[in-house]
Amino acid sequence: MPKFRLAIVTTHPPGKGSLNEYAYHFVRFLRQKGEIGEIILLPDELPPGQTYRFEAHPGHAPVRVIPCWSFGAKDNAWRIRSAVRQADPDAVLFNIQFASFGGSKVPATLGLTAPYLVKRAGYPTIVLLHNIMETIDLRRAGFTGNPLVESVMRFFGAQVTRLLLAADLVAVTIPKYVEILESKYKANNVVLAPHGAFEDAPQPSFELPPGPIKILAFGKFGTYKKVETLIEAFKLLQDGSRPPLELVIAGTDSPNAPGYLEGVRRRYAAIPNIRYTGYVDEQDVPRIFSEAAVVVFPYTSTTGSSGVLHQAGDYGKAVVLPYIGDLAEVIAEEGYSGEFFEPGNPRSLAAAIAQVIDNPDRRRELGRQNWIASRGLPIAEVVDWYLLHFENLIEQRQAATAYRLPAT
Amino acid sequence: MQINLQQLETMPGTEQAVAVVGLAGRFDAHEVPHVRQALTQAADRTEGRVVVDLGGVNFIDSSGLACLVQGMKYCRERGADQILCNLQQPVRIIFELTRLDRAFKIAGCVEEATTTLAARNSQN
């Protein structure tokens, strides 16, 4: 099969939208595949002064960038369809989750009609869907606190899911999601595709750098990722019985919770040794993780498998997780291991963190186990699976087109 | 896991050899380096004509699947193919769940696989 041109609708660094990190690694490896002639990146528009940059490398497919949507806008689906038609790729991949296109209901929902429109425009389409409506806790994720509104949202969420399932394939990263989509929606185009490990680095050191013991929380905070319990736990841990500690809260507000971290910073200003890094540039991610003794997941619910967990594994870090939803399932299914705590309980969280930082052997053991788990399937190989699916879809489309052509 | 890559057969209607790699047991990340080496050696001996007999495999994880994908790509880069056969039910379910059953050529038995390879060979 000749090389093909793939369009990808996604966020991407320096854009700060969710899934930008996943897209960064996916595109990084996709460029290196011989099957790809060109990548047409269709990301969100950046603030003034920022640009998407892709350096040319010998043997790497070129990347053309067409920023064509913006978080919260209501016309994203139409603009994306228009950009796809303009670029005219061989196939289109959507790297999305339910809140990719907006933090409020209308733009989020309208944006999710984009795969349907692109498919209707005649392009082979795969949606990589990082979460599904059925497993999102809408109240904790910040969408609504009203049960009636929640029911209405779930109804419309189901209709949006049906639209997403109009794509040629919908890829999900957890077997349970396949079961739900097949049983509830009678879908027969859902495919399991592992999340994949981001880094291709050699075995990390399981020792810590000199200085305070760093406890890391990484992500976009304010909806279902809340740091209050973690800070309360950190206060308990700083009881004078341990070497110096530092709590590193790395990341930004969730788009659904602007101003959250600033509010937390003011509220807990009296507690020492807390560092808020703000947005972490891609080149700083290895250092942030490598310096940490433990990575904590201060989640009250989850909306999908965790890229941060895979990153913690990449860097050989012990993790502390809540007893909830997908995280526990990912732990079980993918071979990760950690200490667990009761969500919302600072004493439980402090005890779980203490299990790691007070026991270097336990910390190293968990880090090694998570590193081995993260090695399971590098994202470079996951990319190959998508290429196979795209090749099949393109061949099917070509065969159907040939069948429709009149005999000469 | 048991890996047998010694078996070489001749494709029907040709004088060309095809390697049959038989696998048995649990195919997970720990086995991947050994299987990858066996598949590469088999492909190198036969210009990429390889049959992987999975009849003895009772478990496969994503690493095992990825190893087979790499093997298939290696063979196709040589203008030939890697065909799977004898998938047991637990393994077939994983292929269906990931839809890789549509990416690989899958035969019922070794004989059918070698016939398929011969047919592909005559098309090229």
Q: Trace the largest sheet of chain A across and list its strands.
A: 3-2-1-4-5-6-7
Class by alpha and beta content of chain A: alpha/beta
* Average of per-residue pLDDT values of chain A: 90
Helix/strand order of chain B, N-terminal first: EEHEHEHEH
Total strands of chain B: the figure is: 5
Output the helix-strand order of chain A.
Answer: EHEEHEHHEHEHEEHEHEHEHEHEHHH
What sort of overall outline of chain B do the alpha carbons produce when their principal axes are compared?
globular
Structure description:
Chain A is an alpha/beta fold and 408 residues long. Chain A is 40% helix and 17% strand. Chain A contains 14 helices and 13 strands. In chain A, strand 11, helix 10 and strand 12 form a beta-alpha-beta unit. Helices cover 44% and strands 32% of the residues of chain B. Chain B has helices at 32-45, 62-77, 89-98, 110-123, and strands spanning 2-10, 17-27, 49-60, 81-85, 105-107. A five-stranded mixed beta sheet of chain B has the order 1-2-3-4-5, sandwiched between helices. The A-B interface holds A 169, 175, 178, 191-194, 375-377, 381-382, 384-385, 388-389, 391-392 and B 29, 61-63, 65-66, 69-70, 73, 97-100, 102-103.
What order do the helices and strands come in, and which of them pair?
The complex is a heterodimer of chains A (408) and B (124).
Chain A: E1 4-9, H1 20-30, E2 36-42, E3 63-65, H2 76-87, E4 91-96, H3 105-111, H4 114-120, E5 125-129, H5 147-164, E6 169-172, H6 175-185, E7 190-192, E8 213-221, H7 228-237, E9 245-253, H8 260-267, E10 274-278, H9 285-291, E11 292-296, H10 307-314, E12 318-322, H11 325-334, E13 339-341, H12 346-357, H13 360-374, H14 379-404
Helix pairs in contact in A: 1-14, 2-4, 7-12, 10-13
Chain B: E1 2-10, E2 17-27, H1 32-45, E3 49-60, H2 62-77, E4 81-85, H3 89-98, E5 105-107, H4 110-123
Parallel strand pairs in B: 2-3, 3-4, 4-5
Antiparallel strand pairs in B: 1-2
